[in-house]
Amino acid sequence: MDYILSFSLLTLLSHMVFIFLAFWALKALMIEKWIRKGHVREARLLYFFLAIALGYTVSSFFLNFIEISQSVSFLITK
Description:
Blueprint: H1 2-26, H2 40-77
Helix pairs in contact: 1-2
């Protein structure tokens, strides 16, 4: 039960951190050039969705990598 709780908290924290990092990294792009004038709300929403998609994908990759690494270590030790 402790393993499930700790992995759930790790997953939640990982998703939030990587979404924040993706949002921060997306600020380096000049997306304003592609957005039509007067569509500020839509641009912000697009920015937010891109950050969620990118952050979730990267977080899932790292969590999957950690899980596979643990599985391989169990195979090696037995």
